[in-house]
């Protein structure tokens, strides 16, 4: 095994994911002004966003725990004469990541609800773009989890290195696609600061 190869691959996706997490946390709240007979779409939209934020928070917590485990595992794989001893911990962390991904799916569902409400078109556009970004991220996360599945079976990547490298390339492309969608959502929010209030943005 090339001793430095595995850690460099792991660092690549960890760094990319950290950037996405920061952007995902910029889910907005919506300003007053959208109402209708029989209900308050603005209030319903904010409830959906609050639910999304809770799911995102849990997603990030679980992913952080899983990545901390992988960080420790990769160091041990790099120095161990028997990387197979780390299989159980890889399995545990992969399960945490799958659970985390489920939370992001819940967040996406919450944002999809906003698109069905009687709210301003800009709010719907924001929710739709953010939903697309989450879908892109979920697709990338699925491939990342697939990579860890390969690592679980072949911790030293003696037999599956080429497949793993190709998969990581797809992971990187997927996160870049998600990042562009998150950027577009941020631009939409910035263009309507009185309607879409994103934590940390200037309005």
Total strand segments? 2
Low-confidence stretches: 1-5, 18-27
Spatially, the strands of the biggest sheet line up as 1-2
At the first level of CATH, what is the class? Mainly Alpha
- Report Rg: 19 Å
Task: Please state the average pLDDT score.
Answer: 79
Task: Considering the chains and any ligands shown, give keywords for the structure.
74% helix, mainly alpha, elongated, two-stranded antiparallel sheet, A middle domain of Talin 1, 5 helices, 203 residues, disordered N terminus
Describe the structure.
- The structure is a single chain.
- By secondary structure, the chain is mostly helical.
- The protein has a single domain (5-192), classed as A middle domain of Talin 1 (Up-down Bundle), CATH 1.20.1420.
- It has five helices and two strands.
- It has helices at 5-24, 41-79, 87-114, 121-153, 161-191, and strands spanning 29-30, 196-197.
- Strands 1-2 form a two-stranded antiparallel ribbon.
- Helix 1 runs antiparallel to helix 2 (41-79).
- The longest helix is centred in the N-terminal third of the chain and has 39 residues, at 41-79.
- The chain starts with a helix and ends in a 6-residue tail after the last strand.
- 36% of the residues are buried.
């Amino acid at each position: 095994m090339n001793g430095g190869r595995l850690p460099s691959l792991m660092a690549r996706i960890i760094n990319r994911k950290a950037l996405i997490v920061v952007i995902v946390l910029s889910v907005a709240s919506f300003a007053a002004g959208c109402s209708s007979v029989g209900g308050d779409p603005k209030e319903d939209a904010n409830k959906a966003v609050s639910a999304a934020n809770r799911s995102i928070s849990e997603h990030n917590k679980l992913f952080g725990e899983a990545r901390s485990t992988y960080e420790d595992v990769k160091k041990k794989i790099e120095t161990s004469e028997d990387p197979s001893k780390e299989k159980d911990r890889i399995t545990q962390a992969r399960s945490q990541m799958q659970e985390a991904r489920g939370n992001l799916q819940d967040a996406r569902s919450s944002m999809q609800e906003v698109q069905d409400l009687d709210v301003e078109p800009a709010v719907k556009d924001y929710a739709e773009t953010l939903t697309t970004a989450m879908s892109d991220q979920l697709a990338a996360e699925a491939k990342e989890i697939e990579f860890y599945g390969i690592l679980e079976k072949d911790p030293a990547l003696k037999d599956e290195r080429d497949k793993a490298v190709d998969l990581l390339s797809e992971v990187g492309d997927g996160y870049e696609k998600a990042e562009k969608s998150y950027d577009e959502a941020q631009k939409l929010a910035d263009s309507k600061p009185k309607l879409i209030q994103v934590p940390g943005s200037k309005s």
